[in-house]
Design goal:
Layout lengths: L24 E4 L1 H4 L1 H11 L4 E6 L8 E7 L2 E7 L5 E5 L14 E2 L4 E2 L6 E2 L5 E3 L18 E7 L2 E5 L9 H5 L2 H5 L8 E10 L3 H6 L7 H4 L14 E4 L4 E6 L4 H7 L2 H4 E7 L3 E5 L3 E11 L2 E10 L5 H29 L9 E4 L4 H16 L5
Antiparallel strand pairs: 1-19, 2-11, 3-4, 3-6, 4-5, 5-10, 7-8, 8-9, 10-11, 12-18, 13-14, 14-15, 15-16, 16-17, 17-18
């Protein structure tokens, strides 16, 4: 069985700062409650980032396609004859109808159900009924706008801005490439999936995974003392972040040998909401995707290393069962958080210095919003 080992710099040890020098912060409640703020994030941030859409294995053969729909966007991701993937906005350029209503297989062309415009697997319009009735310049080389798509580590990644504006995925991921590469996710097996609807702002749901301060209270039964939470080491990258949470009893070995993939949970946020919760033999990947200012669809994939025996698979089943119970505890807290969003008693969040990944995410997002001023 594959055993991931560190390839990048150490993230835990006497010579590694455990808490970045960002300090505590005070965040106005409006960042989480304002519909206007949500719309700024939707149009200036979420449309301008790379994030995971699905596992590559979901579209194994040419003609297989996915319909990805989140935060008001709808996208077709289709496997091409040469094995590559193409993606385009699922919007007919005639009158704005959705071209494909659901994931499936397309042998030839996608046909708009309203007036029969035909699109190939890249979104290009290849046939228009009564085309001569249109202004010729408007229907020449027309296509649904392209969405940038790349595949890495067994995932389909998309950027809604399109290939003309999207940076190369490897450049966007930066230091996270070396951190996640040892797990060889492209060879891992999809063990289980789940989704939850949470009545809270997407950042509030994401925040729950960016700090371990809540573990002692929220997960006192499910996690208990299995993790040495106070020994957590946090690293902030340019836009992404991570922390290393040692398993109880492994702190000294981790400090000496600095193998965080072996002796800890290594947890990564790929800005803005692709999350990887990594243990040596299995990974939970999450996307807390916004469905509105006050609602989130929380998607999860559980990946396991291949080649395990029956005992290993039983352990992975047990691990998944534990995770779903932990997620249920987080869902309960999300409900309590969402219930206060209109209260005059909720005016700000106070983050301590160990909740700095939250502060970092919000700082990066604020810069992103300012950079894209004028975008709608």
């Amino acid at each position: 069985m594959h055993k991931p080992t560190r390839r990048g710099p150490p993230r835990f040890g006497d010579d590694v700062a455990s808490v970045p020098d960002l300090g505590p912060s005070k965040i106005p409640a409006e960042i989480y409650t304002s519909p206007e703020r949500y719309e700024l994030e939707r149009t200036r941030v979420l449309r301008d980032c790379w994030f995971i859409a699905e596992r590559s294995e979901r579209i194994p053969a040419p003609g297989d396609f996915l319909v990805w729909e989140q935060f008001g966007e709808t996208v077709v991701i289709a496997r091409q004859e040469d094995g590559s993937a193409a993606a385009f906005h699922n919007v007919c350029q005639h009158r704005g109808a959705r071209i494909a209503p659901a994931s499936g297989h397309c042998d030839d062309t996608f046909v708009c159900p309203w007036h029969g415009w035909k699109h190939d697997l890249t979104g290009k319009v290849v046939a228009i009924p009564d085309w001569h009735d249109f202004e010729r310049a408007e229907v020449t080389d027309v296509r649904s706008p392209r969405v940038a798509v790349e595949e890495w580590a067994g995932w389909i990644w998309i950027h809604l801005g399109g290939p003309e504006v999207a940076p190369p995925l490897a450049d966007y991921l930066g230091e996270v490439v070396a951190e996640l590469a040892p797990y060889e996710m492209e060879n891992m097996v999809l063990h289980a999936t789940a989704s939850w609807e949470m009545p809270a702002n997407w950042k509030a749901v994401t925040d729950a995974f960016l700090e371990v301060y809540h573990v002692a209270q929220t997960h006192r039964v499910t996690i208990g003392e299995a993790l040495s939470v106070r020994d957590t080491a946090i690293t902030l990258f340019d836009r992404h972040s991570m922390y290393v949470v040692p398993f109880t009893g492994h702190v000294e070995r981790l400090r000496a040998e600095q193998e965080h993939q072996r002796d800890a949970i290594s947890h990564y946020l790929v800005y803005p909401f692709s999350i990887f919760n990594c243990e040596r033999y299995h990974i939970q990947a999450f996307t807390p995707v916004p469905t509105g200012p006050h609602s989130t669809r929380f998607l999860c994939w559980h990946l396991i290393q291949p080649g395990g025996d029956e005992r290993f698979l039983t352990e992975m089943d047990r691990s998944w069962d534990l995770f779903t119970r932990v997620a249920g505890e987080d869902l309960y807290v999300a409900e309590q958080s969402g219930a206060t969003r209109q209260s005059m008693g909720y005016t700000r969040n106070l983050n301590n210095e160990r909740e700095c990944r939250i502060t970092h995410l919000l700082n990066v997002m604020q810069e992103h919003i300012a950079k894209n001023e004028g975008t709608r």
